[in-house]
Amino acid sequence: MDINTLATLLEKLSGKVGVSVELLWESLIKQAYINGIIRFIVCMVVLGFSIGGLYFLRKLYNFNKKKYPKGSYICVIIVATAVLIIVCNIFNLGMSAFNITESFLNPEYWALKQMFCNTR
Are 3 and 118 in contact (CB under 8 A)? Predict the structure, then answer.
């Protein structure tokens, strides 16, 4: 898409909504910051729950290690679950970091991307 197509899309959308193109663009830029804040909060909540889950798994592992000193499958399952939580959080933080920085550092790009993705 080129700039003419974007201008046409913005004009059509502003006509449907009943506002000017400038106001619509400013609203999209403001939405970029709001999107970044929401993604950051969700990322921190998920990270908090994961840290709490890992703490619980560590306590459960220590309890089962004392109860079954020669080892058991429950200890292997606990360790595998902890590794899975850590890997999922690394992936989540990586994807969220990209979207959060995109929303805060370059809101115009975020708004353009939203326009192009939603017009397909």
Answer: no
Query: Tokens 């326009």, residue?
Result: 115
pTM assigned to the model: 0.73
Q: How far is CA 4 from CA 11, 43, 89, in A?
A: 11, 37, 41
Q: Per residue of the chain (120 residues), what is the pLDDT tens digit? A: 567 777 787 788 778 777 887 887 888 889 999 999 999 999 899 889 999 988 988 888 888 777 766 667 777 788 888 899 999 889 988 888 888 888 899 888 888 888 777 665
Tell me if residue 89 falls in helix, strand or coil.
helix
Q: Which helix (H) or strand (E) holds 50?
A: helix 21-67
**Sign (positive/negative) of CA torsion 10, 11, 12, 13?**
positive
- The CA–CA distances, whole Å, from 67 to 62, 64, 70, 71, 75 equal 9, 5, 9, 9, 11
Domain segments of the chain as ranges:
19-118
